[in-house]
Design a protein that fits this description.
Elements lengths: L4 E4 L9 E4 L8 H18 L8 H16 L3 H8 L3 H8 L7 H11 L14 H15 L2 E4 L6 E4 L6 H23 L3 H15 L2 H4 L1 H29 L1
Antiparallel strand pairs: 1-2, 3-4
Helix pairs in contact: 1-6, 1-10, 3-4, 7-8
């Protein structure tokens, strides 16, 4: 494991190590943090095989856990703030239990964050869209920088973090380029509308057409991460 990310055990996290990040971390270390988080999710999945990692409960719990750690709180300390035991907090963080809206608000208040930081982002809301981008920064090494002329903001994804996403983005880039070329040559309002409708239909059908391959790719990526985790555990056992 990279030395910039170190695992320590908290008093109420015996089975789920907590990460601390060195302050001298390199700018590109988000990729390392993202991989480390993925490893932890796999550990939690192995410990609780019935957990649905694609469920709302799991996503909300993962955000609670991430922010709690950033705040330097143990599960027991957070539980005390919301009137729950450490074991109950752990169940919410692992996605075994789904918190009701009023409890999500209590968690948000205890953590000192906006409730929207814990819920699934609503991208039509600028704040929700920002939280969605924050999540993509963690999961896909999204980077934000100013354009060379300093007149706009440019978002880029780290290549290789998710081969599946790389493939989708490549297809989108080609479709977007084709759309712009055609729309600029449209000779009538009717033709322009047809081009827009065609592009819209492509956008919302592309993932459906690829759902079988996407599922296989997701399984391959998860297996690769599981293999990486097992190799890390073997290295640790070899050092003992």
């Amino acid at each position: 494991m990279d030395e910039s990310v170190k695992a320590i055990k908290g008093p109420d996290d015996e089975h789920t190590p907590e990460e601390t990040v060195d302050k001298t971390i390199e700018p590109d270390a988000l990729r390392i943090i993202s991989q480390n988080c993925s490893m932890e999710y796999i550990k939690r999945l192995r410990e609780s095989p019935d957990t649905d990692i694609f469920s709302t409960a799991y996503r909300v719990g993962s955000r609670i856990r991430l922010i709690r750690k950033a705040k330097g709180l143990t599960q027991a300390e957070l539980g005390e703030k919301v009137g729950l035991t450490a074991d109950r907090v752990q169940k919410y963080e692992n996605g075994i239990r789904k918190p009701k809206p009023e409890l999500i608000q209590e968690f948000a208040t205890a953590l000192g964050v906006n409730r929207k930081a814990l819920e699934d982002p609503i991208t039509s809301d600028p704040v929700g869209a920002l939280f969605a981008l924050f999540e993509m920064e963690l999961l896909y090494n999204l980077k934000v920088e100013r354009s060379p002329d300093n007149n706009s903001t440019v978002l880029t994804f780290g290549h290789g973090v998710s081969p599946q996403l790389d493939a989708f983005l490549a297809e989108w880039e080609k479709a977007y380029k084709h759309f712009n070329e055609k729309i600029n040559l449209a000779s009538s309002e009717r033709e322009a509308k047809d081009i827009v409708n065609s592009y819209t239909k492509w956008k919302y059908s592309v993932s459906q057409e690829s759902v079988g391959e996407m599922s296989k790719q997701s399984q391959r990526e998860l297996l690769k991460k599981q293999i990486e985790l097992l190799n890390q555990e073997l290295e640790i056992l070899g050092e003992e």
